[in-house]
Amino acid sequence: MVERLNVPDTKNKQSIYRELVPQILSLLQDESDLIANMANVAAVLKEAFNFFWIGFYIVREKELVLGPFQGPVACTRIAYRKGVCGKSWEKKDTIIVTDVNQFPGHIACSAESKSEIVIPGIVDGHVKFVMDIDSNRLNEFDDIDANYLLDIVNTIIRQSHF
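Above: the chain's sequence. Below: its structure in token form.
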């Protein structure tokens, strides 16, 4: 298990992700609890990238319910198809929003959020949760984030009981 996070001293996010992914694997390898794994992943990503907000919403019947997160208080429940998280759940796909003010139906939990990425956690064809990351800068996220964050979401799925 990782006892201390090693984050490279670089602005290159691909290098940071490359260093983090094996550490996340080590951190989660002996833990099967979904909530514990989400909590540690949120902490790792917050520490490594200092995102404005990073967290998870868990599917509970017909809505997403707030799970572990790092950052300011957040919306507690999000309906299917609503906001970026609800759309990601509906489409079963990652959504990158370069400017949240341009996303129809965006749910503003904080006026400081400027861009967002949401990655669904899919098990047996069903979305079980979404990872939601907000930045206080426009155009923060791209395909590099999408690819590495999907790998991290899939690691959570492999390690956790459903």
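The longest helix spans residues 143-159.
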